[in-house]
Task: structure prediction
Amino acid sequence: MNYSFRKKNKIVKYIVIHYTGMKNLKSAYSKLNNINSNVSCHYLISRIGIIYNLLCPSLKSWHAGKSQWKNILNLNDYSVGIELENNGHDHGYKDFTNIQYVSLKKLLNFLNKNFYIKHQDIIFHSDISPNRKKDPGEKFLNHKAGINRFKNNIPNKKRYSILELLKIYGFSNFYIKKYKSECIIAVKRSLNYKVINNKIDFKFRSDFYNLLFK
Ligand SMILES: [Zn+2]
Result:
């Protein structure tokens, strides 16, 4: 399978959550283990809750591709990648199963203990590559996996502009500048909206604020 060695100055700080986006577990498993696929990940969680450890997290897997978060480039260097079995938006996007959340929660606890990863650093592929990726998507429910990403945020002023909120969420300046609409769409997925578009209305502004600060 595909992997690289982690450089000494690049330690694991993030967990990136994905979906497999393939029609079944077998094809996802084969792809993630195939050296010619140019992708890999550390863990794969099936719909019946089995956790497959495909690669040791001390090695770098190739799950994120071209990506940015805050001021960091290429998140593969700093992250553990977890794939959740789901057909994805192109093959019949499904709710994640309860047992998948249970397994994910266990795995996150294990990783948190080993790498001291904070809740705020458990992020989505769509956050770090908003121009290319939709996963894990709007059906992924953070609370079911026990993730409380923004619990430490404290507002210091009453009104933030959308650009400021995008920055606080964690998007890189490059994505905010070049792919603002795609960033808005990624936030809507994070908010579990049923209808995903780039419209900014009063409800979205207040939901976005509440996501970050409440
Ligand atoms: Zn992904």
Q: What stands out?
A: Residues 4-152 form a domain with the Lysozyme-like fold (CATH 3.40.80.10).
